[in-house]
Amino acid sequence: MRKPPRFPRPELIVSDRRMMLIAAIGAAMLCAVIQIALHAAGGYAGGAGLPVELALNLLLDASLPAVVRFPRAVGALAVAVTTVLALGASLAPGVLSPRNDPIVTPAAAPLVVSFLVALVPWRQAFAFAAVLALPAIPIWSPTWGTLYTALSATALPALVALYLRTRYELVRELRERAELADSERRLLAERAETAERQRLAAELHDIVTHHVTEIVLHADALRVTTGDDDARVAAEQIRRVGTRTLIELRDLMRVVTTGARPVAARRPDDDTGGDLAALAAADQAALNVEGDPGTVPAVVARAVYRVVQESLTNARKHAPGAPVAVTVVYPGDRADVEVRNAAPRRSADPTLTGAGSGMGLTGLNRRVTLLGGTFSAGDDGEGGFTVTAGIPAPAT
Fold it and tell me: Can you give the pLDDT at residue 376?
């Protein structure tokens, strides 16, 4: 197992370079304003070197916004400016810096060190801080005052920036782990749901298919052996309905167990789940069919029939006497269904409304979703109720 790095990687630290650029620009402007104000007020102990020192400091301030894109170049410039000021203070006081001024570290140097820790590998950042501290002491004439000032301007900002960087990366890693754990939980839940659905489909196949097959076989045997014409017609009807049920059950189990979409294939004319015209006529609903129903596979045609059937049943129970309009459109690559009923004209029978399982619309939603479609059901805002479904039909 790969061990995590001791310190966070720099590319993971800077998630928004634009914000860092704004911070660098603001820091540069603040440093420049303070240094110009001190120079104008004579805040330094006099000397002819003040304008030169101010110019070098302003040069480093002006380069500070570039630290986001060129951190090493700005770090090298900070080292060069500090070295020049330190040499000037030791070899020629008053030429490059004021006389008797022990502070030679530019005001922007701590900011440069902080940005370097955030932008480059931590070893390089601390190497820059160490190199920057050597002329800031300076090493050829060290004193306790210069040592304290140099470390405060280099090592201390580096340590503070490293702490903030490590804390930021730790929080980010914890957040990523939490998101990963949440994704894993969702994946496990989906797998468990899929496994349970497949188990139920297998039980449905073993139990229902077995008994429906027996019904079909006995109906076929009765159709062949009986001499009663009415019994023969009834047996044929039982056989046809049972066969259609087996086909629908087979297609639905294939969708449930494998997640496969319905296959467009040639089908018998009666393999549609039922007659929509007869279904609408039985409920005195207005039916409007556009397009060719033969362009969709059998499993889609049966889903359309079930949507219309359940919607009409709900309208009959919950909106008695209300006019119902059924619209089915076959554009060629899908089937769109809309069943809309107006506001009920009389109160619903509580015995009738309480007789259902309450799972009709939920079952329709699952059926349509498994086929890759969309389903919605709700009030239309005028007291009525609308059920819509769109089911894709793959090309043959």
Answer: 92
Does residue 109 belong to any structural domain of this protein? Answer: yes
Across the strands, what pairs with 385? 341, 379
**Do 49 and 89 reside in the same domain of the chain?**
yes
| Residues 284 and 230 reside in one and the same domain | no
Residue spans of beta strands (DSSP E) within the chain: 286-291, 324-330, 334-341, 374-379, 385-392
Q: What percentage of the chain reaches a pLDDT higher than 90?
A: 6
Q: Which value, to the nearest 10 degrees, does the dihedral of the CA atoms of residues 277, 279, 284, 287 take?
A: -40
The 3 state secondary structure assigned to 58-95 is: HHHHHHHHHHHCCHHHHHHHHHHHHHHHHHHHHHCCCC
pLDDT of residue 190: 85
- Specify whether the backbone of 262 is left (phi greater than 0), alpha (psi in -120 to 50) or beta: beta
Q: Which residues of the chain, if any, have pLDDT below 50?
A: 1-14, 43-48, 99, 263-271, 395-396
User: Which tokens in the block code for residue 157?
Assistant: 């900002």
- Domain check: are 254 and 281 in the same one? no
Query: What integer pLDDT is reported at residue 374 of this predicted model?
Result: 92
